[in-house]
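Sanity check

After download, print the first record. It should look like this:
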Amino acid sequence: MTRAGADAVEDGLAAHENKSQLRFLTCGSVDDGKSTLIGRLLYDTKLLFEDQLATLSRDSRQHGAPGGDLDFALLVDGLAAEREQGITIDVAYRFFATGKRKFIVADTPGHEQYTRNMATGASNSDLAVILVDARLGLLTQTRRHSFIVSLLGIRHVVLAVNKIDLVDFSQARFDAIVAEYRAFADGLAFETLVAIPLSARDGDNVLTRSPRTLWYDGPTLVEHLETVNVADTALARPFRMPVQWVNRPNLDFRGFSGTVASGEIRTGDAIVVAGSGRTSTVKAIVTKDGLLPRAGAGDAVTLTLADEVDISRGDVLAAADAWPDVSDQFAAHLIWMHDEPLFPGRPYLIKIGTRTVNTSITEIKHKVDVNSFQKLAAKTLGLNEVGVVNLATQQPVAFDPFAEVPQTGAFIVIDRISNLTLGAGMIDFGLRRATNVHRQALDVSKASRAALKQQKPVILWFTGLSGAGKSTVANLVEAKLHALARHTYMLDGDNVRHGLNKNLGFTEVDRVENIRRVAETAKLFLEAGLIVLTSFISPFRAERRMARELVEDGEFIEIHVDVPLAVAEQRDPKGLYKRARQGLIKNFTGIDSPYEAPEAPELRLDAGTRSPEDMAEEVVAYLTTRGYLG
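Expected structure tokens:
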């Protein structure tokens, strides 16, 4: 290659590198043509190689494309299941470019079952192309996706009225759909909303203007994507950088690595550690390519500071004159993404920035009807439902309201055992500043109270099916401990429902809250230095685990009073199984509500073959040999 040719190549690469980039997603209901549209964009912008075109032609014939046409959806639907069913399941990302701009497009599923995948695609997008089948008009999933798009902060929307060819390019049909959508979207705070009639299959108004819609005088889809102004405002927001890693390669260097989430930072700028309030100034901005005078949103850097400041992974560095909020309670919008519903009171993890903390949803204020935006009363959130909730975290976290700084106002909810992502949330506001409420220091400690009683405080958590004999064994254990002059207190499932938990029923939500309250109460008695006995079915492992984690190691003994369901049902001392079998009692454990047996209890008592007296003796012996009785 000549020098002139090499220079031309370099100039071309530089020009391409300097093009602006737009990230957008396609969404809408099933079979609205999302994958076909992306395939058409790739085809029309000539980004397909000859072998790809040959494969597409072969696959189109194999999957029955009409009239020998190319089925552009096959360019994006990569999973075998997608091709067989003709639907999108996973999020597919594709890259293409025009002379003016580079694009990354996410093709997201239309099925309600995969709404969580759609939300994933929306979380990184600047613009949404919402497709509507011109024959069907607005559907529930169209509204759901539009609401989620708005909720996730996307402010630029294209309403693509697809398959306009199947309604004879009717302007009246197009205008009716656009009018209905604009009325629906009036409260969604979109900055731009452009409606375009198109046929993704035939290419009408995709790249070039269609002669079959002469009544339409707006831009083609590509023209609009090339020119829409979606300038990122992250640089204009206050400086925020969640710390990903404390970089300490040797004794002479200590830096704090992360990606700048918003704003910009310069050498010499004053910063604050949001959680502790400690301040310092930036000594240097370090990258693998050397020092920088400044860094902005999206830059991955290491900051060194002028002072020795205690900073760990998960801390947020912020501009000293614009602090984020710090709280352990806040209100948020939450999209639930798991088949198992959300239960208030159940322990979860949330990840916000680089910080992961224990949390629980303390209240579901309401869920949102995506069709009418009505606020509906709710005790749980199911798959793909959106609600407004209150959360409480075990430690304070630094955050900004999502509307102000999306990068530090978004979080995900994670299952503590499986590590699966269960939901995605956007913080609305803090419910209190974490510095306003503190635990009162007490002069008399748990240890001193226990020493006075000459015993080690512990919770004996008896669990098992109704009729297993939990209360009988627990009563015998308490009587034996009382005879040994030990200080105890008994919390029984039936008794607490006459007072502390009299307002709770037996739904899964109420059962979770029942055990949460009992666990907190048992902890208070433990702090008093007592041996606490609790007798509850407590059917769910998550709540028993939550109770265990409230106290220190060695202060929780799980005792499974184990009996086969048939034996418990045969005993039926209160006639509950019989009534449950007759349908007179709903949500009865073992019949129409599950019991999750302990996987590794400290004690397993075979209540099907042993006497209560024998089992009680085993419990007392366990306490004696392990030093709980002094």
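If your output differs, re-run the checksum step. Summary of this record's structure: The two ends are 89 Å apart (CA to CA).
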